[in-house]
Amino acid sequence: MAYIIQGDTGDWEIVIGLEVHAQVISKAKLFSGAATEFGAEPNTQVSFIDAGFPGMLPVINEICVEQAVRTGLGLKAKINLTSVFARKNYFYADLPQGYQISQYDQPIVGEGELILDLPDGGTRTVGIERLHLEQDAGKSIHDMHPSKSFIDLNRSGVALMEIVSKPDLRSPEEAGLYLTKLRSILRYLETCDGNMQEGSMRCDANVSVRPVGSTELRTRCEIKNVNSIRFVQQAIEYEARRHIDVYESGGEIRQETRLFDSVKGETRSMRSKEHAHDYRYFPDPDLLPLVIRQDFVDGIKAGLPELPDDKKARFMAEYGLNAYDSGVLVAEKASAEFFETVAKGRDSKMACNWVMGDFFAALNATAKTIEDPPVSAANLGQMIDLIKDGTLSGRLAKDVFALMVETGKAPAVLVEERGLRQVTDTGAIEAAVDAVIAANADKVAQVKDGKTTLLGWFTGQVMKATQGKANPAMVNEMLSKKILG
Amino acid sequence: MSLDKATVRAIAELARIEVKDEELDHLAGELSNILTFVEQLSEVNTDGVMPMTSVADITAPLRADVVTDGGYPEKVLANAPEAAEGFFTVPKVVE
């Protein structure tokens, strides 16, 4: 399923590396005691450190360190017991210090890996280059005044993890799968909420192209701050095409930072970042090297939750589900828990079908969340019990499920209230079958002439006559016996 | 090590320092002298020597994750050349 772009001179492939900025879940900022909560009044969560006042000294927040290590372990990465904070120097209105405290040649987390769950059920491993801790910048708001930008420093100094992939991704789709999986892992670990809309997870994409079969790495362009997975994919697609067009018309690609315009669906050069790659990093003299102990790392490791890959493997082994279904169910911890509650002590395949089918459809249709589901896991489980014990047919269950969504009532209550019990009484079914046969002598003749597909039509008629309550298997059996003998 | 005028111009730009053309020659000479002076350090063989970050053998102290600061926007904004509605305001910077 290689993703290949056909050009005028031949076939091209894309080389993509992603840099994700994930906001660390912590109460206070990386180097100050100011709060991190989203949506506060402007500049109310700012200490003198975050505002870059002279003489203020940063002190590292231990929970931010713990969160970075936890994320590193979740990515099966090497944890560096000694890491160094460095200053990345640049001027911008929302960066009051004139530099960002980041990590450069000695990050806290080294190489790791992330496994993509492909749509066909297969997997592909993507390398993680590094993860480092750094400060976020403030926020510029451009639409409050015709000639001014408004600066809010509440976000200034909030801890970010910059997670850098190796240039292992080969299509916009893989980039999307990478982001989806990374988001899922971060949410399992509770180190970042993964909310791209609020900006707590932001993505820069490094894109280059090369002729298929070549192993060179050509000049890349970096597309900054794309705020949804769909936009990342669009931006990559556009950028790759642009590179190919430039190469095929004899031009050269210049390494630069570009911006994605989601309205026009195109990328364009950010002129302000022309010199941006000259950051003049140097170790921050305000901060000693960060040294952590192996037993600190081991303690975090011992407390890791079951992560999506392990859970997926367990779902396949324990419940007999296929790779695709397992992957979908474990993407969110809450949906995995929901499924396990439904499946507990029941037919797991049936539980999977109901959760993945009608339940997810109802979730979408009602715009509810798995935390506040339209049908509780207990009720869905009870409904499956009613199918198993013959009270409900599959068809009746669909009606009952719709009523559960509508009323929130338990399935057993609805069955009683609405008289939706499946009819398994042979006499009643036989009467309905006889009536339908008697009323449709012409079609009976056609079936006898070999048009057996019409039997399905007869089943439908009998089900209709019994308001859907007849046991479909019994109806089928009786129909073929009576018509075909 | 000696710097040319173009490099000095680039450094000035990155540091947002305004430098007149007639100052460039002088600055290039001065900066080159400083670099040459510091370069003497490379005569010392430091193979296998870890960088010293402090004279005492101490590591970075850590802070508990507790909100202990903030909540004084008027102080944060007190020295701002321009502010409005609780924000700093600056000439529009937008791509």
From TrEMBL, chain A:
Keyword Membrane in annotation: no
Enzyme class, UniProt record, top EC level: ligase
Annotated transmembrane regions: none
Keyword terms of this UniProt record: ATP-binding, Ligase, Nucleotide-binding, Protein biosynthesis, Transferase
EC code: 6.3.5.-
Reaction catalysis annotation: L-aspartyl-tRNA(Asn) + L-glutamine + ATP + H2O = L-asparaginyl-tRNA(Asn) + L-glutamate + ADP + phosphate + 2 H(+); L-glutamyl-tRNA(Gln) + L-glutamine + ATP + H2O = L-glutaminyl-tRNA(Gln) + L-glutamate + ADP + phosphate + H(+)
GO molecular function, one term: ATP binding
Stretch forming the signal peptide: none
UniProt xrefs under Pfam families: GatB_N (PF02934), GatB_Yqey (PF02637)
Cited function: Allows the formation of correctly charged Asn-tRNA(Asn) or Gln-tRNA(Gln) through the transamidation of misacylated Asp-tRNA(Asn) or Glu-tRNA(Gln) in organisms which lack either or both of asparaginyl-tRNA or glutaminyl-tRNA synthetases. The reaction takes place in the presence of glutamine and ATP through an activated phospho-Asp-tRNA(Asn) or phospho-Glu-tRNA(Gln).
UniProt protein name: Aspartyl/glutamyl-tRNA(Asn/Gln) amidotransferase subunit B
Organism expressing this protein natively: Paramagnetospirillum caucaseum
Encoding gene, per UniProt annotation: gatB
TrEMBL record, chain B:
Classification of source organism: Bacteria, Pseudomonadati, Pseudomonadota, Alphaproteobacteria, Rhodospirillales
Self-association state and partner proteins as the record states: Heterotrimer of A, B and C subunits.
Pfam families per the UniProt record, alphabetical: GatC
Functional summary from the UniProt entry: Allows the formation of correctly charged Asn-tRNA(Asn) or Gln-tRNA(Gln) through the transamidation of misacylated Asp-tRNA(Asn) or Glu-tRNA(Gln) in organisms which lack either or both of asparaginyl-tRNA or glutaminyl-tRNA synthetases. The reaction takes place in the presence of glutamine and ATP through an activated phospho-Asp-tRNA(Asn) or phospho-Glu-tRNA(Gln).
EC nos: 6.3.5.-
Family: Belongs to the GatC family.
InterPro entries assigned: Asp/Glu-ADT_sf_sub_c, GatC
Listed name of the protein: Aspartyl/glutamyl-tRNA(Asn/Gln) amidotransferase subunit C
UniProt superkingdom: Bacteria
Keyword set includes Heme: no
Catalytic activity entry: L-aspartyl-tRNA(Asn) + L-glutamine + ATP + H2O = L-asparaginyl-tRNA(Asn) + L-glutamate + ADP + phosphate + 2 H(+); L-glutamyl-tRNA(Gln) + L-glutamine + ATP + H2O = L-glutaminyl-tRNA(Gln) + L-glutamate + ADP + phosphate + H(+)
Keyword set, alphabetical order: ATP-binding, Ligase, Nucleotide-binding, Protein biosynthesis, Transferase
Any GO BP: glutaminyl-tRNAGln biosynthesis via transamidation
A GO MF label: transferase activity
PANTHER family documented for this protein: GLUTAMYL-TRNA(GLN) AMIDOTRANSFERASE SUBUNIT C, MITOCHONDRIAL (PTHR15004)
